[in-house]
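Researcher: I'd like a candidate sequence for this fold, 228 residues long. If you have to choose between options at a position, lean toward the conservative one.
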């Protein structure tokens, strides 16, 4: 598939990009298998993401990915692994975005069955109930990686255009990092809402976070925010 941006070496990429597994994207199992094959055959790390198991993505698709990665000997890679120089290729970096902490917790047994370690990019953590924050702690305790995905899920370039870069960082980025760190989740990576980004914003966020994740679109006719 023409999705070069979702493959990297152990060193990662200038900006990481993942492709969306959610049902709405109509990504076929054959395409997923081809991506896993390529990672195995070329010794690369392939990056995939979804949102809410059972709602936006079928658990069977998650299981297909995890089983396929295990069969091919792909190592589980988190975004903290990239930041720490501990990413191993061939590998699978699977992540989940937004706030579906209950659905993620319900999926822990599936992850465990395949020895998977995944990254949860969390938005709106500041307004989570205490029970939800406790579930996040449970995800981390199970070996998964907890990272920020902004406060209010703003489109970064649009917010910067309207309010300036300083306001974007102050309103939507830094507090999402601070809130996780205050609760004992060290931050290594930031995932852009909608994958929307610019080089200027990348450079600003890198003051605090070494690894950035955007997205690559699996359909043609739309400009992907993933850099070349
Ligand atoms: Zn999101």
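Model: Candidate sequence:
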């Amino acid at each position: 598939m023409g999705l070069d941006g979702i493959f990297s070496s152990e060193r990662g990429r200038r900006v990481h990009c993942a492709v969306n597994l959610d049902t709405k994207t109509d990504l076929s199992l054959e395409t997923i298998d081809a991506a896993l094959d390529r990672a195995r055959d070329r010794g690369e790390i392939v990056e995939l993401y979804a949102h809410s198991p059972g709602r936006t993505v079928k658990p069977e698709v998650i299981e297909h990915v995890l089983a396929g990665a295990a069969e091919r000997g792909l190592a589980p890679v988190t975004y903290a692994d990239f930041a720490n120089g501990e990413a191993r290729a061939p590998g699978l970096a699977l992540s989940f975005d937004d706030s579906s902490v209950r659905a993620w917790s319900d999926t822990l047994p599936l992850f465990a069955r395949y020895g998977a370690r995944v990254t949860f990019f969390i938005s709106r953590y500041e307004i989570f109930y205490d029970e939800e924050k406790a579930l996040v702690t449970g995800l981390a305790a199970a070996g998964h990686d907890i990272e920020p995905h902004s406060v209010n899920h703003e489109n970064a370039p649009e917010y910067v255009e309207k309010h300036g870069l300083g306001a974007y960082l102050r309103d939507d980025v830094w507090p999402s990092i601070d809130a996780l760190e205050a609760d004992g989740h060290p931050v290594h990576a930031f995932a852009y809402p909608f994958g929307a980004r610019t080089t200027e914003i990348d450079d600003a966020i890198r003051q605090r976070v070494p690894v950035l994740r955007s997205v690559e679109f699996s359909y043609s006719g739309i400009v992907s925010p993933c850099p070349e």
